[in-house]
Design goal:
The complex is a heterodimer of chains A (457) and B (466). By secondary structure, chain A is an alpha+beta fold. Chain A has two domains: 93 residues, no CATH class; 357 residues, no CATH class. Helices cover 32% and strands 19% of the residues of chain A. Chain A has an eight-stranded mixed β-sheet. Chain A has a three-stranded antiparallel β-sheet with strand order 3-8-9. In chain A, a hairpin with a 7-residue loop joins β14 and β15. Chain A is elongated and about 110 Å long. Chain B is mostly helical and 466 residues long. Chain B has two domains: 173 residues, no CATH class; 283 residues, no CATH class. Chain B contains 21 helices and no strands. In chain B, α9 runs antiparallel to α10. Chain B is globular. The chains are: A alpha+beta (457), B mainly alpha (466). The interface between A and B is large, with 87 and 74 residues.
Chain lengths: 457, 466
């Protein structure tokens, strides 16, 4: 064999060997991946995303022909992969920061997540226009007049005018100074709808005190001045609501919280306020409603260390991942019994008022105050004849412990998960007070429609 | 099913590969590929698979008739019937809603708008069947006598849902007899992984930036419009060329050799060249099957040219922006044709690059905005000194947050691999070292892509959970 042929054969051998090694490496990764996906235990819940992961679909012909069955199988395997949280954290801490720099200071600079704040497209109102926002025409006949004087009063913003479409307010989150801040899109008239919906409760339940607590988000407290242009002003909408309420009574928690903004009143890594913020808000409410209220010394302080909330889950920001927070909440020392019902007020179960830290994972949407999709009835040892219903979004959960010294009975109902007629329910439980407690995003977002719909179920 | 899913990469593909390589002989291997192709399509489209089989059946039969009657009247009638059937399928399943909507608008009537779900890949496989029929008629290829082989050609899963539009002539021999040697399989794996990485690591990340910059176009600043459209152009390039890489790579693993579909399009010197480098299989389809059909007479080549570009636009989607997009590029190509190649070459290169990049970027803006009001806002935002300013704070943060990603994407638009190959040859790097490097890079990219696919399963739906 000639030297040239030998060299050529050696080269072919080398090329084939290199290719074989290449194939083996890739095939080993593919097979290992298959084993990992198929045989390792599948995760069931993503606490950091507050959702149950995709379950293996059950076969039905309808599902099959729609492609939901086969698609569901692929979704199940993709979604429930073992150690998904750890893999996501790896991406957040090592890959995501490679995309760019923080805006401004390298350590405390800004990162922006989600889509830009969109001004919703105007649509025609399809719900019944609230009474308080209708044009009102009054006729008066002065002495000596033969023709009446007609006075038409135009409301500040008429519901007959095109209203903004509900739905997504904004997905924008600014991470700055190691804190997630939701960027508020603005009420655009929907805040007045909220006010009229709340007023309808007072109209239907004239003997019940109806309170409205619209809670500002960290956007009002911690948005640095140089980022103000990214967000609408919550304060304007909160006080528009206060002004527009004609029957219900507004609770000004904006200033109550602003006075304590240097304290830990909002989570940095989660889209909720912290228990301390709820305490100051509850105090404001109790003072306004002439209710007894206890200081924090009447509570046992509980700590959840290294808490990492939903902002991390949403943004995968390493600024949040590297800076978890201390989640502090307060357990009242008085005797309370808590019964949990389903959303139709059936199926009672005795539960604890608060989930102890030992039973919680330090990441994800906080379950400290229980789930949203339930009705909770708290019976306290207070004897003042006051019975409260809290119609709330998830912000309202944190208020519950701080009102256990103020009311005999408290019913905690989430406006989104409520299958009863709200007025009938209030009469059934003998409510003396109804408190609407929700953040601005709910008050001007789709959630506001639940307030009204719950009156007509 | 789509390629960029963990389920496809780690379950479907390994099972398919094992079965394929255990099968002995081309017949058995073809059977395996056909079964997996059917499974692949039926996974997402359990009903529309019947449409795919019907389309294959009609075109297969027409092919046989053409084979029998040649280019006689009967043969031409068979071809016309098959092509009409293919176009009718596209019209019904892709354009009927758009057509009725426009009729309603134009005549001020309210016919019910058909709400037909678009069958995945119909635009690709229909064009494959059309090319097959015309090739049979023009005797470029011999009609396939086996329905199973023909069905495999139409439904072969690597190129079924996102192209390239593979001509029958490309795989005519390989469908009968093929051999994949070790370097072929290795390069197939590497190419597939490169495609996955382009899609998941680059395109999907760029899509977030593009959406942030262009998402609220009525308030977009000058920078948001220009940079957003640039980022979107790159997103589409990495997404689409990534899919083509996956198709080409998978094809190679199974012994098929598809033609290249993208050749670094942003390196082009003019718009004509851009379209010679971008989605090549579509461009050559129209060139070979439509441009030279003398619909408007031989002297009216510009009318034919505009028809081609109208069809190119409509092929991409049922919307007026796609029509505008197609005609927009058609106009520039017509202008370049009028100027002539020689005179175009005399224009300084830098001017040509600036010109074509501006045209391309605006073109992708047109492609992005399906809503014509939004498209109008986009055009407005492109003009300096409009009310939304040069750059907003949110744009600045977005750009700084993603600056390395965008720069990296720009660099990857250049033919880096050819450069690396050239340098390694110059430096006489041994093939063992370069193969080891390729293996290592592929393994890392595969693992990274997989991790990022896990990350993409996040669905917090944040504001629904207050």
């Amino acid at each position: 064999m000639s030297e040239k042929n030998k060299k050529s054969r050696n080269k072919v051998f080398e090329t084939n060997l290199a290719a074989l090694i290449n194939i083996i490496v890739i095939v080993v990764i593919l097979i290992s991946g298959a084993v990992y996906i198929l045989l390792m235990p599948h995760e069931k819940v993503a606490q950091d995303e507050n959702r149950v992961l995709t379950e293996m679909p059950k076969f039905t012909l309808k599902k099959y022909f729609k492609g939901d069955f086969t698609g569901g199988i692929a979704d199940h395997f993709d979604d429930t992969i073992h150690n998904r949280t750890k893999i996501k954290k790896f991406i957040a801490s090592t890959i995501t920061p490679l995309k760019g720099r923080k805006y401004g200071d390298e350590n405390e600079g800004a990162e922006l997540y989600g889509n830009p704040v969109k001004a919703p497209k105007p649509i025609t109102v399809t719900t019944k226009p609230p009474q308080s926002n209708r044009f009102t025409t009054t006729l008066s006949l002065a002495e000596g007049q033969t023709e009446p004087t007609v006075v038409t009063t135009k409301p500040p913003v008429s519901a007959e005018e095109p209203a903004a479409e509900g739905g997504e307010i904004s997905n924008s989150i600014l991470v700055v100074n190691k804190r997630g801040i939701p960027l508020y899109g603005g009420g655009l008239g929907r805040e007045l709808e909220y006010a009229s919906f709340v007023d309808e409760y007072k109209i239907q339940l004239p003997n019940v005190n109806v309170w409205s607590m619209v809670i500002p988000t960290p956007c009002s407290m911690y948005l640095p001045s140089n980022y103000k242009s990214l967000s609408a002003d919550e304060k304007i909408d909160i006080f528009s609501i206060s002004d527009a309420l004609q029957k219900a009574v507004p609770v000004d928690v904006y200033h109550a919280l602003l006075n304590h903004k240097s304290e830990e009143i909002y989570a940095r890594t989660d889209h909720h306020w912290l228990a301390l913020g709820a305490f100051y808000a509850a105090q404001e409410f109790a003072n306004l409603a002439h209710l007894p209220f206890n200081s924090l010394s009447a509570y046992e302080e509980l700590h959840l260390h290294d808490y990492l909330g939903t902002y991390y889950s949403y943004t995968q920001s390493s600024s949040l991942l590297d800076n978890p927070e201390e989640f502090i909440y307060y357990k009242p020392k008085n005797e309370v019994t808590v019964t949990q019902y389903d959303t139709s007020f059936n199926d009672p179960t005795d539960v604890a008022l608060l989930v102890p830290p030992d039973n919680l994972t330090p990441s994800g949407y906080y379950y400290v105050f229980g789930m949203d999709n339930r009705i909770a009835h708290v019976h306290t040892n207070v004897k003042n004849g006051r019975r409260l219903i809290i119609f709330k979004d998830s912000y309202g959960n944190a208020l519950l412990p701080f009102l256990t010294y103020s009311f005999e009975d408290i019913y905690l109902c989430d406006i989104r998960y409520f299958d009863l007629n709200a007025a009938s329910f209030a009469q059934q439980v003998g409510a003396t007070d109804i408190l609407f407690a929700m953040c601005t995003f709910s008050a001007v977002g789709d959630n506001r429609l639940c307030i009204r719909n719950n009156l007509y179920k | 099913m789509v390629f960029s899913r963990l389920f496809f990469i780690y379950i479907f593909l390994p099972v398919c590969l094992i079965t394929y390589y255990f099968a002995r002989g081309t017949k058995a291997k073809n059977a395996v590929l056909l079964i997996f192709s059917m499974l692949f399509y039926a996974w997402g489209e359990p009903v529309y698979i019947l449409l795919l089989i019907l389309s294959a059946g009609v075109n297969y039969s027409a092919g046989l008739l053409i084979g029998r009657f040649g280019s006689s009247r009967e043969g031409k009638l068979s071809a016309a019937a098959a092509v009409s059937f293919d176009i009718l399928m596209l019209v019904i399943f892709k354009y009927s809603g758009f057509i009725v909507e426009n009729f309603n608008h134009l005549l001020n009537i309210s016919l019910p708008v058909p709400d037909i779900k678009l069958p995945i890949g119909i635009s690709f496989y229909t064009f494959q069947t059309i090319s097959y029929i015309l090739d049979c008629l023009w005797e470029t290829v011999r009609p396939q006598k086996s329905f199973r082989k023909f069905l495999l050609y139409i439904s072969f899963f690597p190129q079924l849902i996102a192209g390239p539009i593979v001509r029958y002539s490309t795989i005519e021999d390989e469908i009968e007899n093929r051999k994949a040697d070790l370097p072929d399989i290795a390069s197939g794996f590497n190419r597939m992984i490169l495609g996955l990485a382009k899609k998941v690591i680059i395109a999907d990340q760029l899509s977030i930036v593009a959406e942030r910059l262009l998402g609220d176009i009525s308030h977009a600043s000058l920078s948001a419009a220009w940079i957003g459209a640039t980022v979107y152009a790159m997103q589409v390039y990495f997404d689409f060329s990534g899919y083509s890489d996956i198709a080409i790579g998978l094809g190679r693993i199974f012994g098929f050799h598809f033609d290249e579909n993208f050749k670094h399009p942003f390196m082009c010197k003019d718009i004509t060249e851009f379209w010679q480098r971008w989605h090549i299989s579509l461009g050559t389809f129209f060139k070979d099957y439509l441009l030279y059909i003398p619909i408007f007479g031989k002297r009216r080549k510009y009318a034919s040219l505009m028809l081609v570009w109208l069809c190119t636009g409509i092929w991409h989607g049922a919307g007026w922006n796609f029509v505008i997009w197609g005609l927009y590029f058609g106009i520039f190509i017509m202008i370049e044709t009028l100027i002539g190649k020689k005179r175009m070459k005399r224009i300084p290169l830098i001017i040509r690059h600036i010109y074509n990049k501006i045209v391309i970027i605006i073109g992708f803006g047109i492609f992005y905005f399906e809503d014509l009001d939004e498209l109008g806002s986009f055009f407005k935002a492109l003009v300096p000194f409009t009310s939304n300013g040069a750059i907003s704070l949110s744009d600045r943060i977005t750009l700084v947050n993603n600056m390395y990603l965008v720069i990296f994407a720009v660099i990857l638009c250049f033919p880096l691999l050819s450069g690396i190959k050239y340098i390694s040859e110059k430096l006489t790097v041994s093939s063992t070292v370069s193969s080891a490097a390729a293996t290592f890079i592929s393994a890392v990219l595969l693992l990274l892509t997989s991790a990022m696919l896990v990350e993409q399963t996040t669905h917090p739906f944040l504001y629904f959970r207050f």
